[in-house]
Design goal:
This protein has 794 residues and is an alpha+beta fold. Helices cover 51% and strands 16% of the residues. It has 4 domains: 1-89 and 231-255 and 263-404, no CATH class; 92-223, no CATH class; 423-445 and 659-794, no CATH class; 464-645, no CATH class.
């Protein structure tokens, strides 16, 4: 306590030093706490279900494509029933499937994200409704009475949190459902779910019959204690392979079992860990900066410490006192860093948006508080260790000499130089990584998508199976929509399709009849399009002809498909088969279009006339002559006027969709650039402090130099040269570190090498420039030293 009181008084006597040290550490701790809050909420925090680590996601994948980390496709009902019946490693297994029906009868019609779930869905997750009940086994059977359980969000937004909602009837598309329950606010699985319906209702009627024939089930399982996902997958393999002989459609397909948490956060795990490592470098730079301040301060107090040692103070006591002061600084900085993180965490969540899974669980909780103050204490301890050890090892006889040693040769000076070199090296690593991501993002944002996105407005239609049960009805409705949209003011052209760039397509196995299928050629994107599709999107026709309004049995392919399936041959007039044997004759070749990821090579793409396969999901594409946003309202009204009770959703300019497709890359680029700028600022401040300290310590030497004839330019160059020498030493180490660490960014880069010389050179130039700026003021001050005043003390 005596050491603590003394440390507090000592820090209060030096408010400038204390403020600088606290602010420096607080920036590093605040940034680390904010990123750790995200990592803890997304990667580390247990799922909000009882024994959530025993929950697994189960998918279906072809044997040739199964590898560690694969996620697979949805399950056919036959496989799901087979695995659920013979589940030796599972306490229970449940299935569910997604729908997006239109909720009517409660004001404005709204499309809601609905999940049809088995009766054991909520019990398997250990969840109970806050109001009412869940589902019962009888409600799983086809033809069961349709019932619904509301999410807490939907209950509040559409029902005003009315506790009398139980027993009310709601309409989804044309089917009436009775509300039997409301889930608690913390239950959000799947995260986007607004409503749950009983599986029996989903398997009834035309839509249910179609769903029962397709790969449409997700599966969840709860493992028995001490059973691993790998063991469960091996045993399901045995069950599945046993069925290959009796079920030809299942041949070659195997299960993929992943922990539910890994399935949810897998796509962002590596990215978040890299961000955590990057912000950790910022904290190390901050610690080195504060260590420099403490070391300089301890050097200024070396006479005081020498006298205390000379009259009997123990070296352990000197070290303990120094560390107490440093840890106190760290704890105070931790409190300040916590305040910064309380602002930074909501900003991060807002910036990340839906790109961050489990973002609703990100918060500053007790674990984060412990890490924040623990990081502060450890940072203070780390920063104060070198100065404390130096103070404890000082020899009073040497320190108390009148003349003293040359400060350039002192141990303190060498330690300060080492800290500056370390800061420069760490900053070089961050600058190189940020530069690579920034250059990659710029290249990605300027990729030619293969079509002209400006002046395009897109939207989505989903045709309810109850009203549009066959292809003829869907085709007639699509033609009515197209006629209504084309006559809108400001519309240059319009079209409809089952898939458009960036917003999704169907994927099918495709091959040339009579030619053995190669795995790398197996998959193609399939789109059924209405007339004017290619003209509206600006996709060039390279060979052959376009599709007519009614053009069954033919298709267009893009250049990637021509190369993949025809290997340089002229594909016009040749056939391609997909969708389980359907054949199309190729009548034209169009340009390549980037699909969901702008950075991925254009995949093979097949276009057929919408009349050949009228689907339920339609994308509306309109090219306007004016501002795209102004056409949104008119487009909605035109669709409503057509009738059919089909609202248009996700209406947006195509340029917005392109920008959204880069949101994850933008997030990580912005974060790493922010860390790099913070690191550069701290390193520059550290360089300025050390060079200034050196000038102050060498005032006598500089006075002597100037007294015997040294010019001001020589003194100026001497100071600048010291700062530049330290920077070059740090760069030599930092370049090696950057080459080693930026390889971790390989999967995040687009058309940029992890060891790009231009980026390394740019990072080095930035640090050299910062070094010159940091050394300029101390060097200028050194040129104004008065030799008489400098030597007067002698």
């Amino acid at each position: 306590m005596q050491d603590l009181r003394y440390a507090l008084r000592s820090l209060l006597r030096s408010p400038g030093f204390t403020l600088a040290a606290v602010l420096t550490l607080a920036l590093g701790i605040g940034a680390n706490t904010a990123i750790f809050s995200v990592v803890e909420g997304v990667l580390l925090r247990a799922l909000p279900f009882p024994e959530g680590d025993r929950l697994v996601d189960i998918k279906y994948i072809q044997e040739a494509y199964r590898r560690p980390g694969a996620f697979g496709a949805n399950l056919p009902p036959a496989a799901f029933e087979r695995w659920r019946t013979d589940r030796q490693d599972f306490v229970d297994m449940t299935g569910y499937t997604a729908e997006t029906p239109v909720l009517t009868g409660l004001g404005t019609a709204e499309r809601v994200t609905t999940y049809a779930v088995a009766a054991n869905f909520f019990p398997l997750l250990g969840a109970r409704p806050a109001l009412g009940r869940g589902f019962v086994a009888e409600e799983d059977r086809p033809g069961a009475t349709p019932v619904a359980v509301l999410s807490h969000r939907l209950w509040q937004s559409r029902f005003g949190a009315d506790e009398k909602v139980l027993g009310r009837t709601i309409t989804l598309d044309t089917t009436s459902y009775t509300v039997v329950g409301v889930m608690p606010p913390r239950f959000r699985y799947p995260p986007e779910a607004q409503l749950w319906e009983n599986l029996g209702a989903a398997l009834s009627g035309p839509a249910g019959a179609a769903r029962a024939r397709e790969f449409s089930f997700w599966a969840l399982g709860r493992l028995k204690p001490d059973v691993t996902p790998a063991r469960a997958q091996r045993n399901l393999d045995v069950i599945q392979k046993r069925a290959w002989s009796s079920d030809p459609t299942s041949q070659g397909w195997l299960p993929v079992v992943n922990r539910l948490r890994d399935f949810l956060v897998g796509p962002v795990r590596a990215s978040l860990l890299i961000m955590l490592g990057a912000v950790g470098l910022v904290l190390l730079i901050a610690c080195a900066n504060v260590a420099s301040l403490l070391l300089a301060r301890a050097t200024g107090r070396e006479h005081e410490i020498a006298i205390r040692v000379a009259i009997g103070a123990g070296r352990i006591r000197i070290l303990r006192e120094a560390l107490t002061e440093a840890v106190l600084l760290g704890v105070v900085a931790g409190a300040a860093g916590l305040l910064l993180s309380l602002w930074g965490v909501p900003a991060l969540v807002t910036l990340a948006g839906e790109e961050l899974p489990r973002f609703a669980q990100v918060s500053v909780d007790g674990r984060v508080l412990a890490v924040c103050f623990g990081a502060g204490a450890l940072a203070g301890l780390f920063a104060g260790l070198a100065p404390g050890l130096r103070a404890a090892r000082s020899a009073p006889a040497d320190v108390l000499k009148v003349a003293g040693a040359d400060p350039r040769r002192s141990g303190a000076s060498r330690s300060l130089d080492a800290l500056v070199v370390a800061q420069v090296a760490l900053t070089m690593i961050l600058l190189a990584g940020a530069g690579l991501l920034g250059r990659s993002f710029l290249r990605l944002s300027h990729v030619d998508p293969g079509f002209e996105p400006t002046h395009l407005v897109v939207g989505q239609l989903q045709l309810p199976a109850a009203r549009f049960s066959n292809g003829a009805q869907r085709l007639a409705y699509a033609q009515q929509v197209l006629e209504a949209v084309r006559v809108l003011p400001g519309v240059a052209s319009a079209t409809l399709a089952t898939g458009i760039p960036i917003a999704g397509y169907a994927i099918s196995s495709a091959s040339r009849p009579g030619i053995a299928e190669r795995p790398e050629q197996a998959w193609a994107w399939i789109s059924a399009v209405m007339p004017d599709y290619f003209r509206t999107l600006g996709i060039p026709l390279e060979r052959g002809r376009a599709l007519d309004a009614l053009d069954p049995g033919v298709a267009l392919i893009d250049s990637a498909a021509a190369q993949a399936y025809f290997s340089g041959e002229d594909p016009i007039g040749k056939q391609l088969s997909y969708y389980g044997g359907q054949r199309r004759t190729i009548v034209g070749v169009v340009g390549n279009v980037r699909q969901e990821a702008l950075g991925a090579p254009p995949p093979p793409h097949v276009y057929e006339a919408y009349s050949s396969d009228p689907g339920s999901y339609l994308k509306v594409v309109v090219r306007v002559t004016g501002v795209p946003g102004a056409a949104v309202g008119a487009l909605r009204h035109a669709i409503e006027a057509v009738g059919g009770g089909v609202p248009i959703d996700h209406v947006a300019p195509m340029t917005s969709l392109l920008a959204d497709s880069l949101s994850r890359q933008r997030l990580y680029t912005v974060l790493l650039l922010a860390f790099a700028v913070l690191a550069l600022t701290l390193a520059t401040a550290g360089m300025y402090g050390i060079v200034s300290y050196g000038v102050n310590r060498r005032t006598r030497e500089i006075g002597i130099r100037m007294a015997i004839g040294a010019g001001r330019s020589g003194v100026f160059g001497l100071v600048l040269g010291r700062g530049l020498a330290l920077t070059c030493a740090g760069l030599a180490i930092g370049v090696v570190g950057a080459v080693a660490t930026t390889r971790l960014l390989r999967s995040f880069l687009f058309e940029v090498a992890p060891t790009d010389p231009a980026m390394l050179a740019a990072a080095a130039l930035a640090l050299i420039t910062a070094s010159l700026l940091a050394s300029y003021l101390p060097a200028r001050r050194a040129t104004k030293v008065d030799p008489v005043l400098a030597l007067r003390s002698e």
